[in-house]
Amino acid sequence: MSIEASPRPGTTIRIGPASGIVRWRQVAVPLATFAVLVLLSAVSLGRGDFPIAVPDVLRTLAGLGEGAEPFIILELRAPRVAVGLLVGLALGVAGALFQTFARNPLASPDTLGITTGASVGAVGAIVLSSGGVLPGLGIPLAALLGALLTGVLLFALTWRAGIDGYRLVLIGIALWSIGTALVDWLLTDAEIHDAASAYVWITGSLNARTWDHAVPLAVALAVLLPLALAASRVLGVLQFGDDTARGLGIRLQGAQAAVVLIAVGCVAFAVSAAGPITFVALVVPQIAVRLAGGSRPPLLASGLLGAVLVVGADLVTRTVLPEALPVGILTAVLGAPYLLWLLVRGRRRSTL
User: Structural domain boundaries of the chain?
Assistant: First the structure.
């Protein structure tokens, strides 16, 4: 094994015939973000009607808790934090995949209509089940099916011997508009108590989350995250354009299909667990690329930053604000100005 300086940023490491460049900034950012996430999760687990100090929380997580602390932390509070962490991780990775693939910082599950498709499924289950049209169809399952169907429709409408990022965004915005109209129609036709339940869900909330919500999402991410990380090399080639990717031996159509389906799967399971927590997938990839450097949003850093944002926003809504609000409201308040800034910046560049 040998380590030597590289003319490019980073350090070249050689192990036998294999070699690679390690960019220490891109290693330090995920490690620092993970440390912040652990600390933030411990603080969140300790806050509530029965306050528990952070050292006691960490001791309980290590299996050394005493008294009622293990029950309070592991059974009452941990499911909410775990769902928030997993949802933020999934949305951050999905946003990085979409933005790198489309080569557009506006590409995210929110603007592409996938979260709106999940909302159509969930609101439809709430409203139609009340009338006996869809008895027994659970809200998470309906949201999952809505997101998956929207993703398949997005893929089918965008496909023209490959997927063009610009066409992907335009068709996604159209699907978002259609989904929003369907949600409004369902809410208008709903009974007042059904409409109230639907509004709570479509804002995105971690209230009343249990291990039944966390476990399916964890299983899905155990499959999807390795696939996303394995697709990282292909993403690095796709960002340079279709012709370059073909010239480097990438099977373009299969690679594009795989990236889109992985991203849609991450979003579908995340939204089915906690509702459409908006703007996370839009904001965190751009924060990650500015912190870690490089030409595209790093997947791991984006996922960890998404988890930090969701867990932190939930902690703020529970402990800082005068009234507890769904976490999706705070992420929307933080993300909407950023979207406006992206649009204004893009317009200024186009007029130069």
Answer: 25-347
pLDDT tens digits, one per residue of 205-238: 898 888 998 999 999 999 999 999 888 877 777 6
149 vs 257: CA distance, rounded Å:
15
CATH class held by domain 25-347: mainly alpha
The tokens for 346 are 């893009």
Three-state SS sequence of 280-294 = HHHHHHHHHHHHHCC
Cα(154)–Cα(18) distance, integer angstroms: 40
pLDDT, one tens digit per residue, over 42-80 is 999 999 888 889 999 989 888 888 888 889 999 989 999
What is the rounded CA–CA span in Å between residue 117 and residue 147?
5
Which 3 state secondary structure label does DSSP give 21?
A: strand
**What angle do helix axes 211-230 and 78-102 make, rounded to 10 degrees?**
30
Q: What is the pTM of this model?
A: 0.86
